[in-house]
Fold these 2 entries.
Entry 1:
Amino acid sequence: MAAYLIRRLWQMIPTLLGVVLLVFFLFKYFGSDPSVILGGLNASPEQIEAIREQLGLNKPVWEQLYIFIKQIVTFDWGKSWATNESVANLFATRLPATLTVTVPILILEVVLAIPFALAVATVRGSLTDRAVMICSTVAVSISLLVYVILAQYVFAFRLGWFPVQGWTGNHWTNLTTYAPLPVLVAVAVSLAPQIRLYRSFFLDEIGHDYVRTARAKGLTERTVLLKHVLRNAMIPILTNVSVLLPGVLVGSFLIEVFFSIPGLGRELLLAVNRGDYPVLQAFAIYLAALTMTFNLLVDLLYKLVDPRVVLK
Amino acid sequence: MVCMTIVGCFLVLVLLAATDLVAANWQKEIGVPNAPPTLLGPQPQEDTGAIVVPKGPNVDLSDIDPLAPRYGEWAERAKAFKTEEIVKAETLPLGGDRLGRDVLAKVVKGAEVSIVVGLSAALVATLIGTVLGALSGFFGGKVGDFLEWVYNVFTAIPTILLIFAFAAIFPRGIGAVVCILAFTGWTGIYRLVRAEFMKHRVREYVRSAEAIGASQWSRMFKHILPNVSHVALVQLSLHVVSFIKSEVILSYLGLGVSVDQVSWGTMLAEAQNEMILGYWWQLAAVTAFMAVFVTAFALFTDALRDALDPKLRGLE
């Protein structure tokens, strides 16, 4: 176990290095010149030169890369070009808002999708099954934007059940007042494809021999489904959740933009629009590292769910 | 079959729009602002409160107004420059937007942009994925390791973040959106094509081709590629759908097509504000067009996969 963990962590290093190189060269050679962005429209050549000097853009490339890596390791990203807020502070203040929305989304999604999918899978081939499948195919085809626009209009603007948008400094108020509508919309939208996917997992398991055996020895359908099928289908479900898990950090950026939630995703979009490179680079690298850590955790979770899995 | 007809109709529509046969003048303001759809009839005349002609002793100011003698002269002169009266339509087939542009023409033009972006991005992504996957799967070894590393790097960064990073450095426009989506979307295709190439590389027919002296390139692209092309084709059509959706979202956020173009995403961005004022037709038009096309294309993809890859049938 320990050896496995160490090897996995060791393997993460080249990938992380690649991410660092990708981000560095992407912005260095394809992005527009930072000094021009910072200088603004009316900058004189001397000002541009001064900014270049200050940012170290006149140094050789390898030295810039060294500084870049040093910034990553020491968690010192300096300040956002646009707001002069320190990048570390940005992270710390925006993350709670994002998590307030995304964690309930993820939990509700999984908790709701599993029973629904199991129910749909048991009535496979029937009219209900086909109706649900057709509905979810059509529902998936409509852009997420439409649902958000409509939900905001109907539930918040027309019916007034929820505030249209808003956020406060109090976590509890946020969770109970401002988060419900975004969470409900996001769950409603992603539920259909999730059910579709989980249904295919369950169907896959139901087709196996062990299910027939379980039925043959007289177990109730309930036991077969809940004990045998569900347990075995947890593996692909867990894989799917692990794919969704990194989305907890920036995944719901559209929801954040719509409902003006001051989270990481919205901050990222602002950074793109302002050409705020330090923020973008820091986000890219740390989120990549976090994603890899999540994946590692899920691999360890497999072991918990399925004792047959051998970690090597 | 129905879905293929619908997809075909949309493609014809895209061609017609691209050659300016339909929806060429989507930017013309041919209707009154926010003209409702024809079915609903014209907007009720709002009471604009016509100015009541004042009455009273001090109404006629012409003897103290220094400009009064020249009013007649100016009216004469103004007649020489009589502007053309454009009769604006009260209603349009699918309604009009804020500027009175025809929503039908806009949605057709938007369909052209969105579908072209989706298709070409999927083509480029498939091309990148297939070529890299072929190289990695066929050669293995150092090349394979290097490409695996590149793949790991690209998949380590969350997709949306990668898209944003690319969007930050590219200018706005159709070409840029295609590049952004293609450069971030090739990884899944790469993985599948690579696996197929690894499987086929050691098959007998490839070995026999090698024995009769077929070069590496010829083996890769003449012998193996036709045998794995179904994977690439299915992935291509799967990606078209997801790229169209991504384009809509990117354009909505202002990271997509430039401002003088229209796509389903920019229309949705406008529709959001119109919605609050009660003008729902632009939203409805875009939603309907998009839902029909994407559903049809998704069903078409399913059919294509069933036909080309029978092993996967019934899985979903």
Entry 2:
Amino acid sequence: MKRSTYLVFGGVVVLFALSWIFKSSVLEDGVYSNVWEAFKVTLAAFLTLAIFSFLYKDNPLYKFAEHLYVGISAAYWMCLAFWSTVVGNFIPRTFESLSAAFKQPYQPSSWDILGIPGNIIYIIPVLLGIMLLMRLSSKYGWLSRWPLAFIVGTTAGLNFVRYLRSDFVAQVSSTFVPLLGTPDSVSVWSSFDLNATGPVVALLSNWVIFIGVFSGLVYFFFSKEHTGWFGRTSKVGIWVLMITFGASFGYTVMGRISLLVGRITYLFGDWLGIVQS
Amino acid sequence: MKLQLLLLSLLILMFCVPVGAQEDSAMVDSLAVDSLAALPVPAPVTDIGLSDLPNDHGHAVVVEWTPSTDDGSGLANVVGYQINYGLSKDGPLDSVGFVPSASGSYEHVGSKDENDRTYIPDHTDLYYRVDVKTVDGRLLVSAEVAGPVQSSGQWYNTGRTAVLIAVALFSFLTIFYVQQAKAGKELYIRPIGGIEAVDDAIGRATEMGRPILYVLGLGTAADVATIASFTILGRVAKRVAEYQTPIMVPTYDPIVMTVAQEVVKSSYMDAGRPDDYDEDSVHFVTQSQFAYVAAVNGMMLRERPATCVYMGKFFAESLLLAETGSVAGSIQISGTDEIAQIPFFIVACDYTLIGEELYAASAYLGREPKLLGSLKAQDWGKGLFVVLSIIGIILANFGVESFGALFEVAD
Amino acid sequence: MKRQAPFALVFIFGIFMVIQFFVPHETSENAYEFLLDWIIIIGIFALALGIWSLFKVSTEKIKNRKEASEYSYITLIGLFVMMAFGFTQRTGESWGLYFIWILLCCACIVALMTMRASVDQGKKRMWAIGALVTLVGAIVVAIFDDAWQFYFTDPQGFENTMFRAFFDYVMMPILATMFALLAFFIASAAYRAFRARNVMASLLLLAALLVMSRFNPYLPFAEYVAKASNWLMNVPNLAAQRAIVVGIGLGIVGTALKVILGIERGYMGKG
């Protein structure tokens, strides 16, 4: 590490200590001691500032926070997977003795497949999991492709029908909009009301939907050259797509700003106590 | 004189009739109030019909009946119906549901788990009774117990026939055009800007002596977008191996890491450089969204890759990645099917594959006839969508709604 | 066999899931639920592989003395400490020598990694002795300190206040701050992109501005801006979204079918 890095860390440690002492003196004892509470709040604030420092440039503080976060989060998910999924979900469904050893209530599956009880069937994914670990062996590494094949095949079949239903079949009927006025809209041409809920705007909107969907789909045609009328329609399509992307962008901006407000409130409120949070 | 008397009588009659009517209505009102206190019993339901619920896994029965004649007419004192069920005609029947007045049917859906309180056994005689509930809170137990009926699961869901037709059609089109492509028929594919730039971007990285960063996104190996990304990774890795440019592939999911290692290793072997493959170039980071992004951002700013390729499933972190890549001075090529993230990639990246272009990219890169053939099938799918939409729109203008009903799919 | 068997498995399970969609019978539904559970269980083994990969990469960075390899110590210490918290818990009110044990273990990890990275034999020996001493110390503390213990069959680790504290005061603040960075990045992205170099950028800019303005009551003609913005969200936005959704849907369907039929084999490596 460079000398400047040590200086930066040294400075941060001093500031941290000062902030901790200040916060301890301000906080009152609750369930836990004020010193411990002050430490936690100060640590959270410094880690927040370390991440914000990324906006300036990559620096030792950000690197520290990043590497700490990677290590802690990986371990967190490992613990969660073990306790929640393995111990909480999987073991109670296998064998009673195993459930008792892990102090979990035995909950065997009441279903079976072709007469084979559920708890026996659960051995198969364990075997597949062990085959996946064979990846670490150069001799038996090819076995790890079998569980991958199972996962990819199962989800490919699932996605095939699911998306065909939701993104194709269900979308067809949603596009059936009247373009020549509703059957009983005699008043369309007699009343040129530009009210958003009026029949004129509704009709124009239907035309926009039709043109938008049609031209958008033309843009995504790959097996025909985009020239002539096809090309012009494709161009209209990309314009409509840009409108939707702009709308999506604008829609998200406010949500993102509110996240920043949340962190600033924590720093100025919970940590520095300047603002009442 | 007589005429005046006649007119006067008529006038008097005109005033008396409304008053009389008021008195009558008052009498009727007082009668209604009186009758509320001592309401006669409404007529029971009739014609109870029981049938197995179709297109389900069993453990469900449809109960239908003709509403009481006093529901909405007559005494008009029915507030709803309580449905009761049991395993024996003479045995206890428990309440399983309540529907408001004017209803004539109820779906009794139970659990398939034997240990569940709402379990309904299949292939077993079941009995039902429909009781009437009155306005004044009385529950009138019906004398009629209908049954027996047996529930069972079906082996084909007729409500999903539209999807079955779509599956058959799409599969036929795919297989047909793949066979055509294998037979040597030329299939055109329009240029996709982002993919054409990949080769140039890899060349740039080689010239600058800087690595290439490939991000597979936050999807799992189960996501189709990630599978498409694997194919693109394979092509990129092969080029990278040929040019001897370093590649970095940090992964979010451990299974994705396993597959990516296999893909990159195979690409190096295909390029005739198996010894150049560094297993640590494809590694797992963490399964936490922002920890992963923090690590990749750090990697970008330290390693300064010449090219960043983002292909797969991305969420809120898409903008973080793209902006950091921009600060690092990298050429950025992205592709995702997450509609909400496409605008951010378009704004921050040099090239973006929008939605379906990500899936077309694998065919475009390899130019394999089989892959091009399936792309043709996808285009036919879009064409079919347009044709069906036009037919539906024309019919909608004539008020024909039944065409749209053909595309409804049961849950 | 080694290469073809996986593709056969892909086909079998893929076709099964397609058929299962049309068969509502209980047996089919049970099989579907079993298969989804299997994926979760296999995922746990994969997570173990992933942790091993992270550990290996970090240790290799330290060993090869790559740039900024010192921070890999932080990753390894964070990994160990959080895992230790997840599988230990105090037995009474006091922590006893628990934190001394944590420090000894961290020191042992640092010593082992540094020993591995050392080139000089003398330094290597010194670090090895240091690692051994700290390891012995940690074992002694673990055996003789009754204030805390390991829990591998009881999820007491979840109740460990340190586990909770690290989640609340380390993980969550960093996560929230990373999210908050988006506010800055969205502004910089907008500045770069909205210079209206061409028609498409102009359309994107105008649509974004219109949507951003819809809740602003101080603009002139605010009511019409809000109406126009709502119309934009509900009509052209809907049209384009539908086109994208249909395209993506067909893309997913096409790719899934290619995977099932074995036409697409890139995900298995050479194929």
